[in-house]
Amino acid sequence: MPRSPEIVAFLDEYLRTREVPDSYCPNGLQVEGEARVSRVGFCVDACMQTFEQLADCQLVVVHHGLFWPSVSRVVGPVREQLRFLLQRGMGLYCSHLPLDKHREVGNNARLLKLLDLEPEEEFGPVGWTGSFGTPVSRDAILDRLAPPLGNSVRLLPFGPETVGKIAVSSGSGSIGMVAEAVRLGAGMFLTGEAGHPIYHAARELGMNVLLGGHYATETWGVRALMPVLEERFGVETRFVDVPTGF
Fold first, then answer.
1. What are the residues whose beta carbons fall under 8 Å from the beta carbon of 116, sequence distance 6 or more?
2. In angstroms, rounded to a whole number, what is the distance separating the alpha carbons of residues 159 and 182?
3. Which domain holds residue 174?
4. Within this chain, do residues 89 and 108 fall inside the same structural domain, yes or no?
5. Do 49 and 136 belong together in one domain?
6. Which of 94, 104, 202, 226 sits at 20 to 30 Å (Cα–Cα) from 185?
7. Structure confidence at residue 84 as a pLDDT band (50, 70, 90)
8. Domain check: are 113 and 199 in the same one?
9. Are 92 and 65 in contact (CB under 8 A)?
């Protein structure tokens, strides 16, 4: 049975945890659990709903961890979440921006894979662009992505009707990303969610923006990590799906 420090060290190296700047949260091991690990749970969000479903796991790997700049005290829900983990000897490993950016198992690389594309140019802090051999219609891209993203995608159709290059950044998009997508020659920008101002920015910059949902665009990285750990350490893995509607 592998030891937790071995798995953590492997994840840190594989995901290049220390090489990817992330001012949002501490990446890597956030809560130390049992030394021996036979079962690893995977989910997007560190919360009681996912912890309860993964209570038989010695280690839980998440994209959104417990600690953020706004969470600096162990009170309220955070206290109860930590109590739950510590009482059961469950470790918690977080990979936020490193898992977005990873060229093989990252959220953005896996979103490109849904379109049979490979990462090409870096886009924004953690995103990628991908190019179609032959330009495809924006409606065809929408139809291709709607089923795996839960049919919750929304298109702002302000760019060209056919797309040769797409820029992808999961989670939250911004006006700056729309402008960068234009600069890189993309015909579409795929992200999870965006604020009100992005509408007019996309319209005035002439960019198609596809909103696939924050949660829905960020299940792909943790799920892609599962077979990596299975093959490397022989552990059992399980993913729990807890969509938020955002």
1. none
2. 10
3. 102-217
4. no
5. no
6. 104
7. very high
8. yes
9. yes
